[in-house]
Protein backbone atom coordinates (compact mmCIF):
# COMPACT_ATOMS: atom_id res chain seq x y z
CA UNK A 1 0.00 0.00 0.00
CA UNK A 2 1.06 3.57 -0.71
CA UNK A 3 -0.11 5.84 2.12
CA UNK A 4 0.29 9.38 3.41
CA UNK A 5 -0.26 10.34 7.04
CA UNK A 6 -0.54 13.96 8.17
CA UNK A 7 0.36 14.19 11.86
CA UNK A 8 -1.21 17.27 13.40
CA UNK A 9 0.63 19.74 15.57
CA UNK A 10 -0.95 18.24 18.70
CA UNK A 11 1.76 15.57 18.53
CA UNK A 12 4.47 18.25 18.63
CA UNK A 13 3.75 20.62 21.49
CA UNK A 14 5.98 23.25 23.16
CA UNK A 15 7.51 20.62 25.44
CA UNK A 16 7.73 17.59 23.09
CA UNK A 17 6.15 14.44 24.50
CA UNK A 18 8.82 11.96 23.50
CA UNK A 19 6.71 9.01 24.65
CA UNK A 20 3.82 10.03 22.37
CA UNK A 21 6.14 10.65 19.41
CA UNK A 22 7.84 7.32 20.09
CA UNK A 23 4.54 5.41 20.16
CA UNK A 24 3.46 6.95 16.87
CA UNK A 25 6.83 6.12 15.32
CA UNK A 26 6.63 2.50 16.53
CA UNK A 27 3.17 2.07 14.98
CA UNK A 28 4.11 3.66 11.66
CA UNK A 29 7.34 1.67 11.48
CA UNK A 30 5.50 -1.61 12.04
CA UNK A 31 2.97 -0.75 9.33
CA UNK A 32 5.72 0.20 6.87
CA UNK A 33 7.67 -2.99 7.55
CA UNK A 34 4.70 -4.99 6.31
CA UNK A 35 5.80 -3.79 2.87
CA UNK A 36 3.85 -0.55 2.82
CA UNK A 37 5.16 2.79 1.57
CA UNK A 38 4.43 5.60 4.02
CA UNK A 39 4.94 9.35 3.77
CA UNK A 40 4.45 11.11 7.12
CA UNK A 41 3.99 14.89 7.17
CA UNK A 42 4.61 16.65 10.49
CA UNK A 43 2.59 19.68 11.52
CA UNK A 44 3.95 22.71 13.32
CA UNK A 45 2.44 22.47 16.79
CA UNK A 46 2.95 24.76 19.74
CA UNK A 47 6.51 25.81 18.95
CA UNK A 48 5.58 26.87 15.42
CA UNK A 49 2.65 28.92 16.72
CA UNK A 50 4.88 30.55 19.33
CA UNK A 51 7.58 31.55 16.85
CA UNK A 52 5.07 32.71 14.24
CA UNK A 53 3.32 34.80 16.89
CA UNK A 54 6.59 36.38 17.96
CA UNK A 55 7.58 37.15 14.36
CA UNK A 56 4.18 38.71 13.69
CA UNK A 57 4.46 40.96 16.76
CA UNK A 58 7.91 42.05 15.60
CA UNK A 59 6.43 43.15 12.27
CA UNK A 60 7.08 40.10 10.13
CA UNK A 61 4.94 39.66 7.01
CA UNK A 62 2.87 36.53 6.54
CA UNK A 63 5.29 34.96 4.05
CA UNK A 64 8.14 35.32 6.53
CA UNK A 65 5.95 33.88 9.27
CA UNK A 66 5.19 30.95 6.98
CA UNK A 67 8.92 30.37 6.39
CA UNK A 68 9.52 30.31 10.15
CA UNK A 69 6.66 27.83 10.56
CA UNK A 70 8.15 25.62 7.85
CA UNK A 71 11.45 25.45 9.71
CA UNK A 72 9.63 24.33 12.85
CA UNK A 73 7.67 21.62 10.97
CA UNK A 74 10.97 20.30 9.64
CA UNK A 75 12.37 20.23 13.18
CA UNK A 76 9.32 18.18 14.21
CA UNK A 77 9.91 15.92 11.23
CA UNK A 78 13.47 15.35 12.46
CA UNK A 79 12.16 14.26 15.86
CA UNK A 80 9.87 11.72 14.20
CA UNK A 81 12.64 10.55 11.86
CA UNK A 82 14.93 9.94 14.83
CA UNK A 83 12.18 8.03 16.65
CA UNK A 84 11.60 5.83 13.58
CA UNK A 85 15.21 4.68 13.53
CA UNK A 86 16.05 2.31 10.69
CA UNK A 87 12.47 2.40 9.40
CA UNK A 88 12.90 6.03 8.32
CA UNK A 89 14.27 7.34 5.04
CA UNK A 90 17.36 9.32 6.06
CA UNK A 91 16.59 12.48 4.04
CA UNK A 92 13.77 14.94 4.71
CA UNK A 93 12.48 16.34 1.39
CA UNK A 94 12.56 20.09 0.82
CA UNK A 95 10.63 19.99 -2.46
CA UNK A 96 7.66 18.07 -3.83
CA UNK A 97 9.75 16.69 -6.72
CA UNK A 98 11.99 14.76 -4.29
CA UNK A 99 9.17 12.72 -2.80
CA UNK A 100 8.69 10.06 -5.54
CA UNK A 101 12.43 9.39 -5.59
CA UNK A 102 12.74 9.02 -1.81
CA UNK A 103 9.53 7.17 -0.91
CA UNK A 104 10.09 3.42 -0.69
CA UNK A 105 8.29 0.23 0.27
CA UNK A 106 8.92 -0.81 3.84
CA UNK A 107 10.10 2.67 4.86
CA UNK A 108 8.64 5.89 6.27
CA UNK A 109 9.56 9.11 4.48
CA UNK A 110 9.15 11.99 6.93
CA UNK A 111 8.75 15.62 5.94
CA UNK A 112 7.49 19.01 7.06
CA UNK A 113 6.38 22.10 5.17
CA UNK A 114 7.64 23.13 1.75
CA UNK A 115 6.82 26.72 0.82
CA UNK A 116 4.97 29.83 2.07
CA UNK A 117 1.21 29.93 1.57
CA UNK A 118 0.98 26.16 1.78
CA UNK A 119 -0.12 24.37 4.94
CA UNK A 120 1.24 20.96 5.90
CA UNK A 121 -2.27 19.69 5.10
CA UNK A 122 -1.72 20.86 1.52
CA UNK A 123 1.74 19.27 1.54
CA UNK A 124 0.20 15.97 2.63
CA UNK A 125 -2.39 16.18 -0.16
CA UNK A 126 0.33 16.93 -2.73
CA UNK A 127 2.42 14.04 -1.40
CA UNK A 128 -0.58 11.74 -1.74
CA UNK A 129 -1.22 12.95 -5.28
CA UNK A 130 2.37 12.65 -6.53
CA UNK A 131 2.90 9.20 -4.99
CA UNK A 132 -0.54 8.01 -6.17
CA UNK A 133 -1.35 7.11 -2.58
CA UNK A 134 -4.20 4.74 -1.94
CA UNK A 135 -5.11 6.52 1.27
CA UNK A 136 -4.52 9.81 3.07
CA UNK A 137 -5.03 9.86 6.84
CA UNK A 138 -5.22 13.23 8.56
CA UNK A 139 -4.59 12.72 12.27
CA UNK A 140 -5.67 15.62 14.49
CA UNK A 141 -6.44 16.36 18.15
CA UNK A 142 -10.13 15.52 17.66
CA UNK A 143 -11.92 12.34 16.55
CA UNK A 144 -12.79 13.63 13.07
CA UNK A 145 -15.01 16.27 11.47
CA UNK A 146 -17.79 17.66 13.67
CA UNK A 147 -20.93 19.69 13.06
CA UNK A 148 -19.28 22.46 15.12
CA UNK A 149 -16.00 22.98 16.94
CA UNK A 150 -16.14 20.26 19.66
CA UNK A 151 -13.71 22.26 21.81
CA UNK A 152 -16.22 25.10 22.01
CA UNK A 153 -19.53 23.24 21.84
CA UNK A 154 -19.83 19.94 23.77
CA UNK A 155 -23.03 19.20 21.81
CA UNK A 156 -21.16 19.07 18.50
CA UNK A 157 -21.70 15.77 16.68
CA UNK A 158 -19.08 13.67 14.93
CA UNK A 159 -19.82 13.31 11.21
CA UNK A 160 -19.10 9.80 9.90
CA UNK A 161 -18.72 10.97 6.29
CA UNK A 162 -18.61 14.40 4.66
CA UNK A 163 -18.58 15.60 1.07
CA UNK A 164 -15.47 17.49 0.01
CA UNK A 165 -17.56 20.39 -1.32
CA UNK A 166 -19.09 20.84 2.12
CA UNK A 167 -15.61 20.97 3.65
CA UNK A 168 -14.62 23.53 1.02
CA UNK A 169 -17.63 25.65 1.85
CA UNK A 170 -16.63 25.68 5.52
CA UNK A 171 -12.96 26.36 4.74
CA UNK A 172 -13.73 29.34 2.48
CA UNK A 173 -15.48 31.10 5.37
CA UNK A 174 -12.35 31.07 7.56
CA UNK A 175 -9.45 33.51 7.23
CA UNK A 176 -6.13 31.81 6.51
CA UNK A 177 -2.96 33.07 8.20
CA UNK A 178 0.46 31.51 8.81
CA UNK A 179 0.15 28.84 11.47
CA UNK A 180 -3.67 28.89 11.45
CA UNK A 181 -5.39 26.68 8.93
CA UNK A 182 -8.20 25.29 11.09
CA UNK A 183 -9.27 21.76 10.09
CA UNK A 184 -8.24 22.04 6.45
CA UNK A 185 -7.43 24.98 4.21
CA UNK A 186 -9.01 25.48 0.75
CA UNK A 187 -5.80 24.60 -1.13
CA UNK A 188 -5.50 21.23 0.61
CA UNK A 189 -9.13 20.43 -0.14
CA UNK A 190 -8.81 21.44 -3.79
CA UNK A 191 -5.84 19.10 -4.22
CA UNK A 192 -7.75 16.28 -2.52
CA UNK A 193 -10.74 16.96 -4.77
CA UNK A 194 -8.84 16.97 -8.05
CA UNK A 195 -6.89 13.81 -7.16
CA UNK A 196 -9.90 12.15 -5.50
CA UNK A 197 -7.65 10.84 -2.75
CA UNK A 198 -9.39 8.39 -0.36
CA UNK A 199 -9.12 10.31 2.91
CA UNK A 200 -10.05 10.04 6.57
CA UNK A 201 -9.79 12.32 9.59
CA UNK A 202 -8.97 10.54 12.84
CA UNK A 203 -7.65 11.26 16.32
CA UNK A 204 -3.91 10.92 16.87
CA UNK A 205 -4.24 10.38 20.63
CA UNK A 206 -4.02 6.65 20.04
CA UNK A 207 -1.68 5.64 17.17
CA UNK A 208 -3.90 2.61 16.55
CA UNK A 209 -6.58 4.99 15.23
CA UNK A 210 -4.15 5.96 12.48
CA UNK A 211 -3.27 2.35 11.71
CA UNK A 212 -6.95 1.37 11.68
CA UNK A 213 -7.66 4.14 9.15
CA UNK A 214 -4.72 3.02 7.03
CA UNK A 215 -6.23 -0.46 6.98
CA UNK A 216 -9.54 0.93 5.75
CA UNK A 217 -11.52 0.49 8.94
CA UNK A 218 -14.50 2.69 9.81
CA UNK A 219 -12.94 5.21 12.17
CA UNK A 220 -13.19 9.00 12.32
CA UNK A 221 -14.64 10.80 9.31
CA UNK A 222 -14.48 9.66 5.69
CA UNK A 223 -14.20 12.31 2.94
CA UNK A 224 -16.63 11.59 0.09
CA UNK A 225 -16.26 12.81 -3.49
CA UNK A 226 -19.18 13.46 -5.83
Structural features, described:
The protein has about 230 residues and is an alpha/beta fold. The chain has one domain: Acetylglutamate kinase-like (Carbamate kinase), CATH 3.40.1160.10. Helix content is about 40%, strand content about 15%. The chain has eight helices and nine strands. The strands form two sheets. The protein has a seven-stranded mixed beta sheet with strand order 3-2-1-4-8-9-7, with helices on both faces. α1 (about 20-30) links the parallel β1 (about 1-5) and β2 (about 35-40). α2 runs antiparallel to α3 and α5 (about 120-130) runs parallel beside α7 (about 185-195). The longest helix has 23 residues, at about 60-85. It is globular, with a radius of gyration of 16 Å. It starts with a strand and ends with a strand.
Amino acid sequence: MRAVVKLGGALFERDPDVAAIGKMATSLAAFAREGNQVVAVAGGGGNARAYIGAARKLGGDESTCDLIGIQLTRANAELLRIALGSAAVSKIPSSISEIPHLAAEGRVLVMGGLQPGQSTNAVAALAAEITRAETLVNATDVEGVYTQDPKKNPKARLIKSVRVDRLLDWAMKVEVFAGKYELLDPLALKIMERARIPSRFVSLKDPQNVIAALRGRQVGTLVVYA
